[in-house]
Design brief:
Layout: E1 9-17, E2 20-25, E3 29-34, E4 48-54, E5 57-63, H1 64-67, E6 80-87, E7 92-99, E8 101-109, E9 113-114, E10 128-134, E11 137-142, H2 144-147, H3 150-159
Amino acid sequence: MIMATTSLEAQFVTFSLGEEIFAVPVEVVREILDYAEAFKIPNGPDYLLGLRDVRGQGVPTIDLRLKLGMTKTVPTPHTRVLVLDVPMENRLLTLGLVADRVFEVTPFRREQIEAAPDIGVRWRSDYIAGVVRRENGFVVIIDLARLLSREDASALQSAA
């Protein structure tokens, strides 16, 4: 019998929104798609771009830039949609997250991940799961379940 050891390293998918680099745990990423216009949903929150057909499933797609108080995404040939399965309190929420560019899957060692400092930046820090220092700046690890409030989650759920 092999004993499970707590891994000292976790894999993350890194992506950018403007100049900022973010990361989400690789296990929540189902797939990465080229950008395509989403089917608009009337009366949704402004950051909800609409529904995207992902293998026969209507997946609500959000503009994370708007959710974080940045300017709206302007699609380029590098724009991608990360299809994520986000564990919420009592269900799995599948959603598309628009990223300006997706970089790579990269491992971060536990000791590299610092708690979210109160660094007085533009966004609220309650949904920053941690920060990893790199020679050219920081990577912000997003806690998607905390980023999406209960109201967001139910709005996105009903959209689908």
